[in-house]
Amino acid sequence: MDITPAAPAEDEIFAALASPVRREVLRLLREQGPQSVQDLASGFAMARPSFSEHLRVLREAGLVSERRDGRRRLYRLEAVPLARVRDWLDPYERFWRGRLTGLRDLLDGMDDTDGTDDMDDIGDAAALGRTGDQETR
What we know:
The protein has helices at 10-17, 20-32, 37-41, 48-60, 80-109, 118-127, and strands spanning 2-3, 35-36, 64-69, 72-77. By secondary structure, the protein is of the alpha+beta class. The chain has a 4-stranded antiparallel β-sheet with strand order 1-3-4-2. Helix 1 runs antiparallel to helix 4 (48-60). The longest helix has 30 residues, at 80-109. The radius of gyration is 23 Å and the shape is elongated. It starts with a strand and ends in a 10-residue tail after the last helix.
């Protein structure tokens, strides 16, 4: 018998995805297919009731479904809520792609007025610690 809630609100889905433990559970289910609670829990250093709470949150958000197989409970990834997240994010991705394309076009259209080549500019940026290797605050 499958146990899945009715369509959860986007807030529930995002709240469920906020936890690194729950994201890891989803990754395991995506990569390895349906698994029992025991198999899933064995990869986490936490008490079983705490892990069960994570599964409950995922189940209520519709991200996993539970199927009872005798005494075992098998969990399976449900993709529909993830598609809703993707649909919600799509306009923002288009927005930022457009902005970055505009920035690229602006930079491509700029003349090199100081007479230096691009490699000199890269070297100057590296000397200032602005290469992108370090996190800026």
